[in-house]
Amino acid sequence: MRQRIILILLVAILLLPMWFIAGQGEPSSETVEIDQSVTDIRPVEGFIDAPTKLSPSQVGVIVWVALLALLGVLALFHRFMNELARPDGDTPPTAADGGTVGFDWMETEDRWIVGYDPPSDSVIGLVAMGGLTALTLVFSALFTGEYLTFARTQYFGIYAFGMFMSLTGLTVSYYAWFMPHIEVAERRDH
Predict the structure, then answer these.
(1) Cβ-based neighbour number of residue 168 at 10 Å
(2) Which of 13, 161, 167, 168 fits a 20 to 30 Å CA distance from 75?
(3) Largest Cα span, the chain
(4) How many domains does one find in the chain?
(5) Which domain holds residue 182?
(6) Which pLDDT tens digit goes with each residue over 97-150?
């Protein structure tokens, strides 16, 4: 709990000055719009009403907050997938012969295997990976279609986010369901 509070305080110390500077913003100016009598393209139309003009400092703060939020989402997603694939994985079982599970290249005089949890190789993992692969293909097709055609609305960011999160899900799913989890103890001289 103490580490979380320290982490939140560090992030706040870094972000508060940036928020203050970003709050100043740029002076207001006239909005430039596309002539709707010529074309139907609406590049700023989206799901949420958003400001049409931001200063570089405001964009910087938004990007940093988005990156920190993405880091938190990825960490939670990784824990969720690992718990889903190995619900009893809090303490991996030790091998029956005292830690030797056939990885001789991993063991030395100062390092040995103390726990081995084999991959589950379940059908649920295959279904999850198949669904995430299909989702990745859909988002990449939408992204490509948005780029190559005259788009009526431009959702590049949403499609790219969906594509990259699907790829992240594929990576985490493979790790959770199809990779063994090995716990290694190592003797160190300090």
Answers:
(1) 18
(2) 13
(3) 78
(4) 2
(5) 94-189
(6) 554 556 777 778 888 888 887 887 788 889 999 999 999 999 999 988 887 776
**DSSP 3-state of 117:** strand
Q: In whole angstroms, how far apart are CA 173 and each of 83, 122, 131, 170?
A: 11, 11, 11, 5
Report the 10 Å Cβ neighbour count for 14. Answer: 11
pLDDT tens string 23-53: 776 655 566 666 677 766 666 566 666 666 6
Give 131: exposed, middle or buried? Use CB within 10 Å, 0-12, 13-18, 19+. Answer: middle
The answer to whether position 138 is within a domain reads yes
* N-term to C-term CA, the chain: 28
φ/ψ (deg, to 5) at 157: -65, -40
